[in-house]
Design brief:
Elements (H helix, E strand, L loop, with lengths): L2 E3 L2 E3 L3 E3 L8 H4 L10 E2 L16 E4 L2 E4 L8 H14 L4 E5 L4 H12 L7 E7 L16 H12 L8 E5 L6 H10 L4 E4 L3 E4 L14 E5 L4 H16 L8 E4 L5 H10 L3 E4 L2 H4 L3 H15 L17
Parallel strand pairs: 3-14, 4-7, 7-8, 8-9, 9-10, 10-13, 13-14
Antiparallel strand pairs: 1-2, 5-6, 6-12, 11-12
Helix pairs in contact: 3-4, 4-5, 6-7, 7-9
Bound molecules: ligand RRO.
The site of ligand RRO has 16 residues, from loops.
Length: 313
């Protein structure tokens, strides 16, 4: 079940979701990460970041909240330890890049794309939508002009042949407007969605559970939100309001049937994030379930069902 992601052929539509499988080594004990269409890394910034205070994870009946705060070793250490290792095991890697300024995003992308392991890089995912930044007003993905600027600067650093995906936030008034802005800046594809901003109150202390108060909600509860975002943006592509590019779907996928729902709304590749915390094989397992489901329906190519929910009749 191979897919074409803006000119890059992946042997499977299945990916991990950024931040949910760390550097891949632990997952690799359970499943060969090279079996994935691509391994998506935790977002990487230029320098080391210690992240927000603890607790920074909360499990709820309807999903998980995180307020990690972009923790990471910085791009140099990422390249030397993590990208080198992923390259050595034959994984295709989508590197999620982040920054506090548009030029920082670009510098991270430059370092990754000029590294000795750039041949493992299947795509750059530009994470403009982290909900856990110091001032929520600075989330790039909430503002078309800031989104455009980040993608414009990153594009200058990413060589032809490596597609640039923009990861969008569901916490915006008009996601199609943000999609239009990043596509004007040259994004080759869109990943939808990042987590949804939430707060959990500790039932005993009656205070926010997370040290940073707010966190990003993920898991099954946000799947209808992901389907809505993919649906709205795909509809805009289909009626010519914005250019047509591949959509990578993410949000609460646990089974092949969940994945097919996102595909029917318009996604041509699927990321599995939160489900991998309980079951590290989930991104690969969901791919097998999706393939079996399509076979039962007599469908041989995933492309034949991408966006099918938009067809009348
Ligand atoms: O690190 C995080 O806190 C984080 C990031 Br960068 C993101 O994009 N989404 C999320 O839920 N958490």
């Amino acid at each position: 079940m191979s897919v074409d992601l803006a000119g890059v052929r992946l042997p499977s539509p299945m990916m991990t979701a950024s931040g949910c499988a760390a550097n891949g080594r632990e997952m690799h004990r359970f499943v060969d990460v090279a079996e994935l269409g691509a391994f998506v890394t935790k977002s990487v910034k230029l320098g080391a970041v210690s992240g927000r205070g603890t607790p920074r994870m909360a499990e709820t009946d309807s999903g998980m909240l995180n307020s990690i705060g972009l923790q990471g070793p910085g791009v140099q250490a990422f390249v030397e330890r993590d990208l080198a290792w992923l390259h050595s095991v034959g994984a295709r890697v989508v590197v999620s890049v982040a920054g506090s300024t548009a030029s920082e995003f670009a510098a991270v992308a430059r370092t990754v794309c000029r590294s000795p392991y750039a041949s493992a890089v299947a795509a750059i995912e530009v994470n403009i939508s982290c909900p856990n930044v110091a001032n929520r007003g600075l989330v790039f993905a909430c503002d078309p002009a800031s989104s455009h600027k980040v993608l414009t600067l990153v594009r200058e650093e990413v060589p032809r042949g490596i597609p640039m995906l923009a990861k969008l936030s569901p916490d915006v008034t008009d996601i199609t407007e943000i999609a239009a802005a990043v596509l004007r800046a040259g994004a080759h594809g869109l990943t939808m969605i990042n987590t949804l901003l939430g707060v959990v109150i500790d039932p005993v202390r009656l205070r926010p559970h997370l040290a940073g108060t707010t966190g990003g909600l993920s898991g099954p509860a946000i799947r209808p939100v992901a389907v809505r975002a993919i649906w709205q943006v795909t509809a805009a592509m289909r009626d010519g309001r914005i250019p047509t590019v591949p959509v990578v779907g993410a949000g609460g996928v646990r089974t092949g049937a969940d994945a097919l729902e996102l595909v029917a709304a318009g996604a041509s590749a699927i990321q599995v994030g939160t489900a991998a915390f309980n079951d590290p094989t989930a991104p690969v397992r969901v791919g097998h379930e999706l393939a079996a489901d399509l076979e039962r329906r007599g469908i041989t190519r995933l492309a034949d069902v991408v966006g099918i929910a938009h067809d009348g009749g």
